[in-house]
Amino acid sequence: MRKILLFIIIITTGLLFIARVFYLQIMDTSFVGRSENNAVKVVYDYPQRGFIYDRNGELLVSNQPSYDVMVIPRNVKPFDTTEFCSILNITPENLAKRLDKAKIFSPRLPSVVVPQLTKSEYAYLQEKMRKYEGFYIQKRSLRDYHTENGSNVLGFISEVNQRKVNEDPYYLSGDLIGLQGIEGYYEELLRGVKGVKYIQKDRFNKDIGPYKDGIFDTLPKKGKDLTITIDAELQKYGELLMENKRGGIVAIEPATGEILALITAPSYDPARLVGRQRSKNYTELYYDSIAKPLYDRGLLAEYPPGSPFKTINALIGLQEGVVDTDDRFHCNHGYFYGRGRRLGCHAHASPLDMVPGIAQSCNAYFANVYRRIIEKYPTPQEGMEAWSNHLKSFGLGDYLGSDLSTGRPGKVPTAEYYNKIYNYPTYKWYSTATISNAIGQGEILTTPIQLANMTAIIANKGWYYTPHILKEVEGKPIKEKQYTEKNYTTIEPEHFGPVIEGMHQVYKSGTASALRIPDIEIGGKTGTAENFTRINGKRMQLTDHSIFVAFAPVENPKIALAVFVENGYWGGRYAGRIAGLMIEKYLKGEITRTDMEDWILTHSLEDEYAKPLSGEPFKINQ
Amino acid sequence: MSKSISNFDWISIALYLLLVAIGWVNIYSASLSDVSTSFFDTSQVYGKQLVWIILSIFLIILLLSIEAKFYERFASVFYVVSLISIIGLFFFGKTINGATSWYQIGGFTLQPAEFAKVATALALAKYVSDIQTDIRNLNGQFKAFIIIILPALIILPQPDAGSALVYSAFFFPLYREGLSGVYLVVGLSSIVVFVLTLLFGPLWISVGVIVLALLAYFLQKKKKPGMIAYIGIIITAIALSFSVDYIFENIFEQRHRDRFNIVLGKEVDSRGIGYNTNQSEIAIGSGSWFGKGWTEGTQTKGNFVPEQHTDYIFSTVGEEWGFVGSSVVLILFTFLMLRILYLAERQKSQFNRVYGYSVAGILFIHFFVNIGMVIGVLPTVGIPLPFFSYGGSSLWAFTILLFIFIKLDSERMSFW
């Protein structure tokens, strides 16, 4: 025992130590990452973000350098604070506060003292910089806007939020990310790929050279330049027309599905979300819960489509073979359907067949067509299914699948839906219960872009490309199948002729005859949508929304659009005028109907919007 | 001399050379700065160490040239000189890192405590091997303890608890020569009670001790020892437990408490006092199977582990050479210690054997405490890893310690 005690202790210790080292080095793998966090600093090299051009090659968005004044607190030597503050336009107390904050963050690491200097501030400060030890200027890249329009289309850049940082390892806290619009949807194309440099640090977090001589380092890849389908001129003109109004305009090139203009009103200058005032401005826009400038009405606003929807019912009637273009229906200031219930209509000649039916927007005509569609089938459920399936083939009732970062599905009612609300089979329901669908007022909801797409489908006689906003990447046309393959509707092409003729007649002899544009043949359809709000819990009707859809020229359509003006009253009043002006602007490049332009530019709906907020009784539809 | 060359234990010498070489390679990596210069740059830590190593070779030749009996004959002189030199520190010492353990001689510093171990080992060997000494009786034990405890007590307040702790190594030769096993049992039991008290508190330990004693008493069938002995042990254990608690809470300084608490897992503090151990574990743990390669260790390069070229040099081995490298180093140390023990056992002279056991014991305590600290199983106690850690005094002292024994061993057959 005396001879072997130390032997045993030494051998045991040796084995235990080897076991412990085995545990540390092999079993427990957590140390590897911890040593890397510890000793290797990763520095990113941010690439230039891609530029954005409009369809005609006009530069809309580029980058501008921005200069942040940085400080490493421990390196600061006494300096002339008065001069420094006067250059930076801040008070000495403010500077002291910022420096304290930086010191608390870290005495050794850089912090921003004054962010985003203007070029002139920078130029002046640069001359003096050598006098301020411990301070330096860091260049960053910000967006530079060459347009005041289309902020909803372009989107904006913002610091990435924590949730995104957790989800996507590409982003680090403090990185910039595109949000909404093009910047949001095509973030990955625009941002490029940042370069990485690994730097070996010591325990004071000081750099002591590249890690492993830089073999893991990568170079940044520049972001891609994008050409979008927007026509900047048209967009600008649309926004001008929509001033002092609320609503949206969506214009599509029917032959390609390219979105020519996407206007929401009110809007804001995209440059407001750049620079030192960014967060203040964003907060202001964000909290404007009345005008909602950040709410893209062209994409998000769901309303009953109103009369433009009648064209679809006509098409479905023809396709289902329940109505012929020659079939006439009587209208006695409306359509009566049992027990004195009436779907009212305005004064016009009667009876009418299809083309004048559309031109005059006769409610009775479409009530008849709708009932024939539903009643063609043995049960109203089957009829409703057939009807809604046709609608869905027009891209209604679901997300369009466009490359816009937001959207709404709208709503197409189905048999199931009505079964539920009428508590079928306890209670039965018939076509008359859903008669409002005939004139686009019932349960159906659409967004302006869906309406514009529907109009493009009519212009194309039965097919559409999914509306999209991206035209070219680095000068090469997009190839995504989603936007380059035709979607066909369930309606045969031959049925579109009479409907197009009807829409043409809307301009020639119908509800938009006062809005004709010289030398341009337009097919259009007015619409009016009733709408309600809640004031102190009470449901109140507001002035109707003014709706208009149109495409032109009727032969070989170049543009199809939907215009939507909140509380603009009847379709021809605001929306119709705006639609005509947009078409003329796009096709001719100039305006000959200056009377219409003047009217729009001088009329404001602000009074109308103030009504429900005034707290006083008001009248509508005046 | 020529005759004795073949008698030198070349295995030990080879292990020594290997450890010193591996040690320097790691010191080089741990102390490498951006401005790389030649290996011999004496302004750099690795350059200085290289000088110490080369001087060690001359020292070895000198040590092996001296007649073996010289060491035994002058053991007392060395011991007295050592005591004077460590007492002199109180008057002429230079303070580095809070410990007054160095003499400044020109550009170099010398740590006499390192050499005092050698002198104590020689003195103890001489005393125990004296024909009149019987380590089995209390008088012999008392004198031997005085020899051991005197330098330890002088070193302790410098303060250098680590170096003082090393003197516990002399238990091993004494036990080998016949010291009662009671000391071992009492010593180990005290350590167990100490650690358990820190973990569970004195109350639970008291309950545990009583339950254990009762179990032992009733389960023992043959010749029951007196109740008195049992009660005595129980009371002693409980008293120890409470006094440990009292000493720990009231006499220890917070930093001592922290060191224990971190190892016992009662506290996690990776920024403050636990920083060294934590960073050292990260360095070793990130080494994986084969390590990051020589001078490629990120922890090492970033100087995350404090004192890495001295006390924490083993963490560089772990990081840059991985499990394979660490195991090799641990095995080399184990082999060297076992080899010395084997040599000690084959000595005919008691002086040689006691000295050999002292060498093995001292190496073991350094190895155990240093590596145990670096891999996070023992509290932080600053003592160097033999042959590895940077420092001339340490390297020379261990070289002298080892090569005196190799010289003694080479002449074990001669009669004098």
From TrEMBL, chain A:
Protein known as: Penicillin-binding protein 2
Membrane topology: Single-pass membrane protein
Entry's transmembrane regions: none
Keywords: Carboxypeptidase, Cell inner membrane, Cell membrane, Cell shape, Cell wall biogenesis/degradation, Hydrolase, Membrane, Peptidoglycan synthesis, Protease, Transmembrane, Transmembrane helix
GO cellular component, one term: plasma membrane
Gene giving rise to this polypeptide: pbpA
Domain Penicillin-binding protein transpeptidase: 247-579
Alphabetized GO MF terms: penicillin binding; peptidoglycan L,D-transpeptidase activity; serine-type D-Ala-D-Ala carboxypeptidase activity
PANTHER family: PEPTIDOGLYCAN D,D-TRANSPEPTIDASE, PEPTIDOGLYCAN D,D-TRANSPEPTIDASE MRDA
Annotated source species: Salinimicrobium marinum
Record-linked Pfam families: PBP_dimer, Transpeptidase
GO biological process terms held by the UniProt record: cell wall organization; peptidoglycan biosynthetic process; proteolysis; regulation of cell shape
NCBIfam families (UniProt xref): pbp2_mrdA (TIGR03423)
Locations listed in the record: Cell membrane; Membrane
InterPro entries: Beta-lactam/transpept, Beta-lactam/transpept-like, PBP_dimer, PBP_dimer_sf, PCN-bd_Tpept, Penicillin-binding_protein_2
Ranges of residues in domain Penicillin-binding protein dimerisation: 46-206
From TrEMBL, chain B:
Residue ranges the record marks as coiled coil: none
Keyword Secreted: no
Protein name: Cell wall polymerase
Originating species: Salinimicrobium marinum
Transmembrane segments: 7-29, 49-66, 78-96, 145-170, 182-215, 227-248, 321-342, 354-375, 387-406
Membrane topology, as annotated: Multi-pass membrane protein
A cellular component annotation (GO) from this entry: plasma membrane
Pfam families per the UniProt record, alphabetical: FTSW_RODA_SPOVE
Major localisation: membrane
GO molecular function: glycosyltransferase activity; lipid-linked peptidoglycan transporter activity
Keyword terms, alphabetized: Cell membrane, Cell shape, Cell wall biogenesis/degradation, Glycosyltransferase, Membrane, Peptidoglycan synthesis, Transferase, Transmembrane, Transmembrane helix
Keyword Transferase carried by entry: yes
Subcellular localization: Membrane
PROSITE patterns: FTSW_RODA_SPOVE
Domain of life: Bacteria
GO BP of this protein: cell division; cell wall organization; peptidoglycan biosynthetic process; regulation of cell shape
